[in-house]
Specification:
The structure holds two protein chains of two kinds. Helices cover about 35% and strands about 20% of the residues of chain A. By secondary structure, chain A is of the alpha/beta class. In chain A, a hairpin with a 7-residue loop joins strand 9 and strand 10. By secondary structure, chain B is mostly helical. In chain B, about 80% of the residues lie in helices and about 0% in strands. Chain B contains ten helices and no strands. Classes of the chains: A alpha/beta, B mainly alpha.
Amino acid sequence: MNTSFTSNSPSVNPNGSASVQISLSHVSKVFWGKNGWLNKITRQTTPNFIAIEDINLDIQHNTFVSIIGPSGCGKSTLLNIIAGLSSATSGTVSINGQIVDKPGPDRGMVFQNYALMPWMTVEDNIKFAVETVYPKMPRKQQKRIIQEKIQLVGLQGAEKKHPHELSGGMRQRVGIARALAINPQILLMDEPFGALDALTRGFLQEEIERIWEKQRKTAIMITHSIDEALLLSDRIVMMTKGPAARIDKVLKVPFSRPRNRTVVENHPAYLQLKQDMENHLYRETRAVEEARIK
Amino acid sequence: MAAVKPKIINQKSAHRLISNENLQALLLFLLSLGLFLLFWEMGARLKLFAKGMPTASLTITELWYWITHPFYNNGPNDLGIGWNLLISLRRVAIGYTLASIIAVPLGVLVGISKIAFKAFNPYFQLLKPVSPLAWLPLGLYLFRNSELTGIFIITIASIWPTLTNTAFGVANVNPDYLDVSKTLGASRWRTIFKVIIPAALPNIISGLRISMGISWLVIVAAEMLLGTGLGYFIWNEWNNLYIPNILVAIFIIGIVGIILDQIFAYLEKLVSFGRQSS
């Protein structure tokens, strides 16, 4: 794994090739409709649904990539394919040259609805992940990792609490700590702040930036928020509307790191980038609405 | 300070309202109970009801007698109500435990596998609505023993709610939890024991609670035909035509039923962790 901390520019691995870590080539996903002979007899057929079509994307080591697009464009489908939770109908996803066909602890996932086990305490939720991935690790070391992650996300004192006793923001911190505790190469986040109120959301975005500066991992985040994408990402992947969603273009975000919201927002390139993204999202969303009327 | 004062007053009045509500409910309860007992006593004394209907005072005196002399033994037809209660509870405990040992694992299995669910569901649906007492002759024929038959009936009666609730809970585990387990690469067993069963536990406990309620309903009916136990106590008093003791037994069965149900209500609360229990 590349441990370089100067990752904004594409780094070079010992083989001398550009260090592409995740490579998606011609990835498509079709949800098959009901059109077997039985459905045809009962006249209950539904058409096939092409969620995403021919997605090609290379992601370099230690880059933060955001995927943004109108609702229902298959962003989550794409992330689930990378996570291995769902399989591509055609095309391949490879990580470090290895084709991905099932989930694995090299990828840590943060869920929109936190997905914490309600019967486990904060500590136990993280412990479940560590124990599952490293069953042979000595207890002491497991404990140290858990403590370390709890501190990293700022949850000291809440170790013995259950998720229902925590606020949404705190729950997502547990989700992030759990994802990081297994020391994944890649962090996958599916609208991690989608269920939070605006203030908490802003606060947690800055926390993510702080955490990411400490532990730079390749990260893929799905988001609806332009500001969020601009604050956190190195690359922003803009998708067209579904069905058959494609990648429209990939923006490069030039801001230096570590970042801070005020500095980012006053950067000369900020307004232009934001404008581009707004135009794109506006156009695609309008197309979605028009398609719905027809 | 001025801004704080009204808040404190509000809290106080809110507090007073709650305690008032409880107090009012208690008063209403006592009032209705008093009126009911008065109506009963007067009605019985004035012979407004059926012939031989005991008065409230006689029934309460009998209740007091049975409660203060629960454990004596003058042969199977004159047994203290404490012994009878213990006999009934023992039958329920054995039959119910047996049922739970069968129902929970089977429910988990059926809940996990959609094919198993579709294949076995017709049995459950067919057997669930059958009155447990319909099994009584079959039990007597199979076991030729009233004790075993009683346990058999309790088992048959209390399997279904636990089974169907467990299967439902397991089949409807939040898919996010399963995704977490999958992304971590947890084994099938680990997922079942660490994720699926704990996630389904509120449903399992609700099923166990319903099953316990049914066991307690059924044991009384079954014992009328079996000899010994609270059900037989009632049947025996009916043969003696002594109505006050029947009323005493009904009251005791009700109280024990409440206690059993509350134990499970407490367990449900213990495993809910902020989730709405179904």
